[in-house]
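[09:14] KT: can someone run the structure on this one? pasting the chain below
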Amino acid sequence: MTTYRIRGQVLKNEKLIPEAEKNEKLIPEVVPLRVEAWDKDEHFDDRLDSSKTDLGLFDIEFTDEDFNQDTQERDWIPDVFFRVYRGTDLVGSTVEADIPGIVWKYFLVVSQQSPFLTLLPMKLNGENTGSIQILAAGIVPEPPTPTKPLNGFQIYNDNVVDILPTVENVASIPSGRNSALVTVDNNGGSLQQIVDNALGQVLCRSSKNDPKAFLDSLTKTFTPQESNGRITYNWTPCSYNTVQTELGGTVSGAQASLYHRTKTLLDDALRQLDKLYALNPAADPQNMEAVRSVIRTQIVELINELGTQGGPRTQRVDSLFQLLLGDVEDNDNFDKVGGQLKDLAEIFGLTRSRVNNVDEEQNFSNYLIIKDSLLSIRDSWNAFNADTGGGAYIGTQLVLLSQALSVVAESVQETYRIMDSVFLGPAERQAVWIDFAKARQNPPNCDGKSAFPLPDGTQYTIGETKQLKPAMTIEKLLSWTLNWSTKEAPTIAIAGGKLGIAKSIVETSNRLMILMQAASFVRVPNTAFQRAGVVRALRDLSFQLFEVKRLAVELIPPLTGEKMPDADDVKDLLEDIRDLLRQNPDILRVLGRNLNRSQ
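[09:31] RB: done, structure tokens below
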């Protein structure tokens, strides 16, 4: 079965303007029309398809079965003509002129200079009522049909490709199919991912595609030891959660210190929790085990949360402290405690008034160790949350940055799929030009200076928009974003550290964010590009780029060197000191007394 597609535009004519608008001398920008495509035959004409116009543009698609309905007439090439309606009223017809047969050979996107550009005049009762301009027409090539997935792999033209490929895998797939594949890493699933996760847990590092880093991790994690004439290797587990991401991100800095201290204190607190016994002879054993189990679970969750890559969730940690300790303030009485620990003390009868001998006092001391450990960790957590002004730690920030870049790459692939679904394919994307300087929000901003809003809520001015030159195809913009998020930005983050992130990644993500947002506000004369799904996808992609920029800005780059004062700076400093001494002569007397005492 052969599929045909036509893209055209109804050109405005005085006959197409409603009388009310004609009296007000207003020419509408959008003419609400319905276009029907018909196949002209000797006996009966075949109705192929219909489409409503958007800014005068329309898309029509049909198959060879639609124009071969009459068994007595078999057409190899359809003789297409159009009928245009406003509501149920016929506006005009191109029955006297159809599309030339030479156009059907390929699906061509035509331009003003193309010899295939076709103008079909419309007539009604012998009078000219406008015309239809054929922008593209032809046979749509059928995409290769993939075989059924087998054991997590897909086969395209005898090439075996992982269902979750890397960017290099996608590049090796024949053109036209790569936009339908997602280059996103999921936890678990394929054998490669399971192996990578297991190695990361054992070696405390993700050493993908880096043999030297893999060998260093093996040397640090497994220590050789000679015993009875043979060498055995002892595994040294991570002291805390140091598994690194592909960008080198890990738990580091203040979070690593907090996590290590929490794990040491609370591991001991869990041992004390298991030793506790009731000082109240009437305590219910079932209630005792229930409250002990609840506290143990919450302590384990607290340790795991503080070791989360990318930083712990503040609301989650605060909730766990609230459940364990209740509303306890720093200046509260030593014995005051709430939450589950209060329930533990009441159920077990852990009060000083019930202590009778040394063993019972040791049991009560174990409870105090648990409580003091949690109070101390909570104070350290509050200090960790305080903003010191030193910027984010690069280990934690690289985890978040790696996730944000993966989201950008996934959003690009999602945009490709949305464009494919509205027939804005790979070839046509290379011909859709975006003039960023013409980006304007509709309706325009009331101040008359703003062109369009940015994801951070600020307005991009018309003057700044005029600097966004030259124009670029949408394919070039999307491929630039995909290549930057999967190759260029990770390389800069790994090799350049804070300097590369704070300079290159911030600037490039900001530039791509502005261009992507501007592209969503440009009125391109292409029906598929103006679809709401495409516009939404571009703005979502712009927001994801803003998130990358926000994470990169939080890293403060190191000082690259101090500026040495020149002669003029020294002269100005001496003048300031001289003026200060003239205004405050007592300073010299105080300095003189201090010098005499030191001698």
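[09:33] KT: thanks! Confidence is low (pLDDT under 50) at residues 21-29, 105-116, 150-189, 239-249.
[09:34] RB: yep, looked fine to me
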